Each structure stands twice: as structure tokens, then as C-alpha cells.
Amino acid sequence: MRRLAWVVVLAAGVAPALPAQGSTAELLGQAHELYERLEVERALPLLRQIVSPSWPFEVTREQRVEAYKYLGACLTLAGKRDSAVLYFRAAIERDPFTELDPNLFTPAQLTTFSEAQRRTFAVAARPVEPARVDPRTARVAFTIVATHAALVDVKLSAVGTGPSLSLLQGTMEGVREITWDGLLADRRLAPPGRYALAVAGRSRFTGTSDSARVYFDLRHELAPLEDTLPDLDRSALLPERISPEAARQDVAKGLGVAAAALLIAGAAHGDLGAGERGGAGVLAATAGVTGVAAFLVHRRGGAIPANVAANARRRAARDSANATIRGRNADRLAATVLLVSPAAGEAAGP
Amino acid sequence: MVIAGAAILGGAAPVAAQRVLLVAPIVSLAEHRVDAGFGVERSLGPILGAVGTLRSGPRLSLAVRALGGSLFGSNGVLDRDVGELGVEVSVVTAPWLSLQAGAARRAYATKLGRQAWTTVDLGATARVAFAGGAIRGVWRAALLPVVSVSGLRGPDTAFRGATGLEYRVRATTLGVEYSLERCDFPTAAGVRRLEQLSALTLRLERQLR
Fold it and tell me: Is A349 inside any structural domain?
């Protein structure tokens, strides 16, 4: 079990795969082997080399924390409790999530580590794990820690905009998972963007304060929304009032009918003589009078009830169609899935 | 046949529903002129009838008409009765234009005999609304590519022209139209037969459903 833990630790340290880190990992591995064989006095110099400012190779944060932790463990076994507490504190300060597995460490080491935790106050939040969350059925999870009992306030806010949402306000100790339903203070789904999770704590023992902040990007995954129909412009609507020009054209239209009647009656009869000319004359007179009367009635511009009604029908049809589209869009929005991914800082994502 | 032209007015009113039934009683003052080589024979009289139109959708309509009346001859010309049954399909191709195809069976009867006409016509109708939309001017033209007359060879030339006005008040449309149908038959035995029917028609169309 211990070997497995070391493999994990070393793998984490080696992950960037740099040669210098390989040297650090190698030394850390040697120190671990000595620790496992209880050759504490031989392990201590190796661990001290790693945390020394003069150590020429790169040391990852995880490697440094492990070195401090095992320095504390070794010194506890060596009976140097005060020094052990100092090194444990150094580990905790660099990573408040640091802990000792009760199955791997002795009670004395655990007690010393607890003392270090009690004397060191820090809060932290784990980087947000990439996740795909349906807010109707699941929650976005965050993991925070306070090294000892503290009054903690956890707030979520969109970077640069909007009020913050309080996710937790109360006393806590150790690691705790909190969840977020994807809604903001106004109970609306959080819009896409960059968010910050801020953890602020005040120690119940020492009165000291600490804070931490992690960022994440939030995106929406949803079916494409439909565009609503645009407003009906003039070309899509019938004229609702008669224009003076249209009134003038009525005269021409009436004369057109009159001329056609006389033309048919006069020209087409030809060799059969002028037949039923009276009928053509009646129609021509009727058409002429109709044209002039229509002009006189319409020249001042009156409403066109049929067009008004037709336009009302068109507007109603558009409104109805838009209501349907909005309904479909609302259904799609309600099925929005949140895509969460870790981010590095305040700047908005690409 | 002139009255047949009036029947086409069934397509005048705007379509408000998917399927619409229109009925229109018709009254015409018709004049029939014939020159069969003995001078122009003229007869004049009223014709009554009705047109039923079924509109299926905004573009297509089917009209059926039945007409009948008496034409009274002048200067020794025999009086004659006339009757006609016809059917016509109309398709709206533009807001102002529709195309028609129709067939009709017409009969003239005098105390000496009876003559039957069978015609097929193809035509177009243009309608232009006056300001406000309650009045429309109508212009029609049609060719009669098939004309079969009992006892005669078919005409060389046969056409129909018409013009009129439509006045619409709610679901009712009053139409007034002048129309003329002309047939020029081929010369036979040195005689060229010419025949025409003109009419002034009033039509009151009402939407039933």
C-alpha cells in the first residue's frame, strides 16, 4: 500500500516529464525507500536536499509538499516533534488538502500532523473537474478545505459581472464537498462565461483569515434555437389607407373598362353591323362613372377595411408562429446541459 | 356562350376559406346576329340562369352554369329559345390574372328546327382592383378552339371578349359585364356564315359557405 502511494506521488511529480524533475523524483524515490526501511536518518538529508533553495533541479508543488510531509513524518519518528510540526505546517501551507493516511502513518505522526493543522490556518478549493452536468438531475461539485475549524464563506460569481451567489456560510473543518445547481441568485440558469469560486475563512482558534479562489469556464450545450419571424415590414403588409395616387388611378381603371366595352362592341362586330351597342354603352357609362366616383370618394384617403383585416390576420399569424417558436426554444433551453472546465484566471476564455 | 363568359365571374370574390361555395343568379339582355348569306338576322331577348362555383383553395375553382331564355326576332326573323349548360375550371396564376378552360353545350330552337352547339374554350381573365378593393375592373379574352355545330362545319375563327365591373359588399358581389362571342364559319356554296352573340349581363353572387 505504501509503495503504491509512492508510485502515485512520483508519477504526479514526473508527469511533466522534464529531465530535472526526473532527478527530483529519483531522489524522492530513494528517500522513500529509506523511509520504508526505517532508515530515517539517511532519508532526512535526501528530503532536505529537495526542499533546499540550492537544489538545482525543478521541484513540482506536489513533490515539495511530499518532501515536507515525509520530513515531518521522519522527524516524528526521530522524536523531533517541534521540527516535525514545522515541516508538516510547511506542507499544509503549500497544499491545505495535505493529509496523512491513518493506514500508512503511525498515531504519533497523525497526532503531530493534527497539531500542525491546528497551528496552521488555510482554506483552499480544488481545481474544478471537467464535467457535463444536466442541472435538472445533477449538480456541479466543488471540493473545499479548511485546515481546522473555521467560519467559512464560499461564493460563486461570474468574472467581472453580476452579484455573487453564496454557496456556503458556516463553520467547517477539513475537506467538504459543496454542490451548485447551476442557477444564479436570480434563480436563472447561469449564462456561459468564466466564473470564480471564492473561499474565505476565519480560524476559530487563531482568528487568522485566509482565502482562495479557483476559476472555471461554463458553457451551455443545447439544441440550436430557432429564430422568431421578423417584424412585418411594409412589403409584407397591404396598404391600409387609400393613397391619392391610387384614387387617381381609379379614373384610369374605369376608363379602361369603358374603352374595352366600346372597342369590343365597335370593332368586333364589323360586317355584322353594330349589335347591342346599347349594352356596351351602358357598361362604358357605368365604368366611367364608377371611376370618377371612386376617385372622388377615395381622394381624401380612407381606410381599406379588407386590407386592415388581412394585415391583422397576418400579424396574428406571425405572433402565433413566434409564440410557438418561443415555446420550442424554451423547451430547448430547459434542457440545457452545463459544460464545466477548469480555467486559469480572470481573463475570459478564447 | 356570352352568358358562359359571365359565369366566369364566379372567380371574382377573394378566397377566405379553403373551400367556398358561391351561387350567382344571372340575368342578361342578349342579342344574336347571324349572316348566312341572306342579310343579317337579329334577335334580342332576356336570358336567365345561375352559376354555382366551388373554390378549392386559393387558386382553383370549378364553375357550373345553366342558362335559358328567349330571343325575339326582328323584321321577320324567327323567334328562338336558347339554353346552355357549361362547366369551367379556373386557375389563379397571379393576383390579377387567372386562366380558364371550359366546355359548354348550347341549343337554339325555333319552330322550324333545333341547332346544337358544343364548344371548348381556353381563356384568361385579368382583374384590377380599384382603390379600397371593393370594386374591380374585369377584362377577359378566350379562344374557342373546338366548336361543333349541328349541320355546319366548324368555324374558322371563334373567340370571345368581355369586360365589366364587380362591386363587392361583404360576401356579396354584383357584377355587370358586356361580352361578345364571334364565330366565322368557312365559305360553303359561295356563302360565308357569320354569327355573334353579345350580351349585357348582371350577376349577383353570394357566398354560401
Answer: no
Could you report how far apart the first and last alpha carbons of chain B are, in Å?
Answer: 28
Rounded to two decimals, the pTM is 0.55
Interface test with B, best of A238, A245, A250, A276 (most B CBs within 10 A): A276
CATH of the domain at A179: 2.60.40.4070
Q: Which residues of A177-213 are buried (b: 16+ CB within 10 A; e: fewer)?
A: ebebbbebeeeebbebebbbbbbbbbbeeeeeebebe
Q: Give the total number of structural domains in chain B.
A: 1
Locate A12 and state its grid cell. 504526479
Q: What is the pLDDT along chain B (209 residues), one digit of tens a residue?
A: 444 444 434 444 444 447 899 999 999 999 999 988 888 888 999 999 999 999 998 899 999 999 999 999 988 888 999 999 999 999 999 999 999 999 999 999 998 899 999 999 999 999 999 887 889 999 999 999 999 998 888 899 999 999 999 999 888 999 999 999 999 999 888 888 899 999 999 999 998 87
Query: Percentage helix, strand, coil, to 5, in chain B?
Result: 5, 70, 25
- Say yes or no: A130 and A37 in one domain: no
Residues A92 and A174 in one domain: no
A274 inside domain: yes
Instruction: Write the ipTM.
Output: 0.85
Q: What distance in Å separates residue B128's CA from the closest CA in chain A?
A: 8
B132–A242 CB contact, under 8 Å = yes
CB contact under 8 A, B130 and A256: no
